[in-house]
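Quiz preparation item.
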C-alpha cells in the first residue's frame, strides 16, 4: 500500500469449476438443462484474495488457466482496465465473445473484489453506490414446471415481496402457444392483480408468431416480452418493439459495448449479464452506453454477483432474482443477502463484495481438473 493506494502486483490467478445438478430437469422455450457450472476465479495480491465467478462451462476455466492467468499476473492490482484490455488482446485469435468473455468476466469480478479488499472498502462504495437497495423481480416459471410447482414458486416470490414476476414461454420453439398463454393467465391468478407480469420466450418464436403472441400478451397485461425472437434478429426485435405495447427486451448474450450498441433502438430495456459481458468493467461500460441512449438496464441472473454493480448504475430497472441462481448462490458462497420487500440491501458492512467461496456446501458438485 502507498498512501492508501494498492500498488501490489498480482501474484497469481487460480481457477476452479463446480457443476451442480438442478433439483430436476428444467427447460425454457429453446433449451433443456439439468445442471449449472460455476467457474470460480481467485486473484491474489498483497496478501489479499479477490473472488469472481461466472456461470458457464469447464472450458471457461481452461481459458482462465491457459490464456488469462499469465497475462494478468505481475500487473498492478489497481489497474483493472489495463488487465481487462490485456486479457481481451490475448484472446483475439480465440474470439472474444461467448466462453472467452465468460472467463474474462470471472477474472474481472475477482480483480474488483481484490482491489476493494486491498483498499479496505466495500465494493459497492468503490464502484460508486447510488442506492441503498436494488429492486429484484422473481424469475423462473420454467416450461417444464406444473401449475402446482409454479404456484409454490410464486408463493416464495410473494414472501420475498417481489412486485414483478417472470415466467418462460415459447415452449418447444414456439409450438405450444396455447399452453404458453394458459400459463401466463395462471401466473396472473397466482400473482394477483398488482404484480407486474413478465415473460421470456428465449428466442422461441418466429417474427409473425411473436407479433401475434405479443398482441395477446398485451391483452393479458404483460409488460415485458423478453427475446420474443432470437437476439440475433435485431431487425425483428425493433419491429416487434414498434408493434407491441409491452416492452421488448434482450441483451443477455451481450459480450461488449459493440454488442450492446447493436441493441440500441431495438429494445425498451437493455439486459446485461456481468458474468458474460466482461465482468463489472464491461457491465459499467455497457450501462453507460445505455444511459446515453435513455435506456434502462436490467441485470440478467446472478443476483448476488450483480448486487454491488447494480447499486452503482443510475439507470438500473431491476435485477433478475433467477430461481436456479437463488438456489445455487448460497451453496457456492457464504454471505449471500436475503431479499426483503422486493429488494436486496447493498452491502456496506463487508470489505470487497463480501462473498467467500463455500465449496463444502456443494452436494454432488464436480470440481475442475486443473492439470
Ligand atoms: Mg432471458
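Solution:
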Amino acid at each position: 500500500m502507498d498512501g492508501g493506494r494498492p500498488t501490489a502486483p498480482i501474484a497469481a490467478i487460480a481457477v476452479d469449476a463446480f457443476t451442480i445438478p438442478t433439483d430436476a430437469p428444467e427447460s425454457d422455450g429453446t433449451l433443456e438443462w439439468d445442471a449449472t457450472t460455476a467457474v470460480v476465479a481467485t486473484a491474489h495480491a498483497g496478501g489479499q484474495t479477490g473472488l469472481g465467478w461466472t456461470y458457464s462451462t469447464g472450458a471457461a476455466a481452461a481459458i482462465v488457466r491457459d490464456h488469462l492467468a499469465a497475462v494478468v499476473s505481475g500487473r498492478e492490482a489497481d489497474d483493472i482496465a489495463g488487465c481487462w484490455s490485456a486479457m481481451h488482446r490475448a484472446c483475439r485469435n480465440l474470439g472474444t465473445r461467448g466462453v472467452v468473455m465468460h472467463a474474462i468476466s470471472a477474472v474481472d469480478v475477482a480483480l474488483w473484489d481484490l482491489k476493494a479488499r486491498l483498499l479496505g472498502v466495500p465494493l459497492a462504495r468503490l464502484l460508486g453506490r447510488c442506492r441503498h437497495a436494488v429492486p429484484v423481480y422473481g424469475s423462473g416459471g420454467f416450461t417444464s414446471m406444473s401449475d402446482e410447482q409454479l404456484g409454490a414458486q410464486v408463493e416464495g416470490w410473494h414472501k420475498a415481496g417481489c412486485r414483478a414476476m417472470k415466467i418462460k414461454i415459447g415452449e418447444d420453439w414456439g409450438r405450444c402457444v396455447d399452453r404458453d398463454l394458459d400459463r401466463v393467465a395462471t401466473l396472473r391468478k397466482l400473482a394477483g392483480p398488482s404484480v407486474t407480469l413478465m415473460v421470456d420466450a428465449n428466442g422461441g418464436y418466429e417474427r409473425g408468431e411473436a407479433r401475434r403472441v405479443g398482441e395477446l400478451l398485451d391483452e393479458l397485461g404483460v409488460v415485458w416480452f423478453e427475446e420474443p425472437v432470437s437476439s440475433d434478429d435485431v431487425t425483428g426485435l425493433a419491429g416487434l418493439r414498434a408493434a407491441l405495447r409491452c416492452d421488448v427486451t434482450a441483451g443477455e448474450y451481450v459480450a461488449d459495448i459493440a454488442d450492446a450498441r447493436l441493441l440500441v433502438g431495438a429494445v425498451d430495456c437493455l439486459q446485461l449479464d456481468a458474468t458474460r459481458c466482461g465482468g463489472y468493467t464491461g457491465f459499467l461500460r455497457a450501462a453507460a452506453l445505455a444511459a446515453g441512449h435513455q435506456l434502462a438496464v436490467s441485470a440478467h441472473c446472478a443476483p448476488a454477483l450483480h448486487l454491488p454493480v447494480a447499486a452503482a448504475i443510475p439507470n438500473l430497472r431491476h435485477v433478475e432474482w433467477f430461481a436456479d441462481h437463488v438456489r445455487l448462490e448460497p451453496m457456492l458462497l457464504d454471505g449471500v443477502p436475503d431479499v426483503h420487500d422486493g429488494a436486496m440491501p447493498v452491502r456496506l458492512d463487508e470489505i470487497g463484495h463480501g462473498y467467500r467461496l463455500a465449496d463444502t456446501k456443494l452436494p454432488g458438485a464436480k470440481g475442475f481438473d486443473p492439470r
